[in-house]
Fold:
Amino acid sequence: MTSRGPVVNSPSSRNRVEIDLAALRHNYRLIKRSLAGQTGIFAVIKADGYGHGMAETSRALQEEGADGFCVADVQEGLILRESGIAGDIVVLLGFRTEEALTIAEFGLQPVVFDTDQLKILASAAGLKQRAIGVHLKVDTGMGRSGISPDLVPEFLQVIKDAEGVFLAGMMSHFPAADSTDGRGSLQQHELFRTVVQDGAGVCHIANTAAMVRYPETHWDRVRPGISLYGYLPDRTNCDFPGLKPVMSLKTEVFQVRDVPAGTGISYGSSFRTARPTRLALVPMGYNEGYLRVLSNRARALIHGVSAPQIGQICMNVTVFDVTDIPGEVLPGDEVVLMGKQADECIDADEIAGWMESLNYEVLCLFGNLNRRSYLNR
Structure:
């Protein structure tokens, strides 16, 4: 059975993203075993589960015992409820006024950072006759959404006075928990500690990097995101052995041809062959998230051997040099752009290096722009 990301190729596309739910479950259990005491897990599955499919991943994680989920917006929260997800769903970006009734009806828990939001929620709670839990976000140094620490007492009083609204939790976020110098993150954590009061509900501040590096930041919940999907934000400063990548990207050869030395390859002839060369063309390009910046940098696995990418990557076509691949490469042969084949592997960290980007972006691009299939349901 297959499902699709928000933007997809034809269901019969030769390009596919494979999501290994057994690897996802393995990563969850690994994370859970690393936590002390009663600390639980709010699994971060925004951006359609970092490209892995939020409905399918959340169901697998709910079966594993996840304590709740973090989504970006109300629509993502609805997807989870419609997928049979119970329990806490924290909406990280808050809500629009017209979504307040939906929040009450489906039991979502929005992050709040404006007193007007609380009045709107109180009205919705009254109309639906359902209490609404909120998470108060304190900006301890991220410099993004949230309220300044000095406003916490005022907000807590407003929440207390808002009929039908209750404080489900307090939270903050680290901007650089994966950096070499951890003093700033620990100072942020101490600031967060000073504003947390009795009755604050479930408190949470630790993302993957903080979860790995600073056990003192775990509080009631941790919020792993990238680690659930098999990666770390920075392998240099974060060490968490045993994670398994959940996503693979595969396609197939659609044409093989031989060209002489001196042949310009693709738009602009940015690559010119230095010898007689055998080309394998695959139906994958920047429309599918295989960005032009990868041109003349990337590699793929064909017959279990690394093949260099040559020439400019096009909208729907990419060329690989298979001259040195053992055996005869034929149309229909599998091409692994990310993942394992035989004893070789290409992971999102390597691709991120070629892209001059982050493994997060690689996963979101590939997962949300290609047909997804699920293994080990």
In short: The chain has eleven helices and 21 strands.
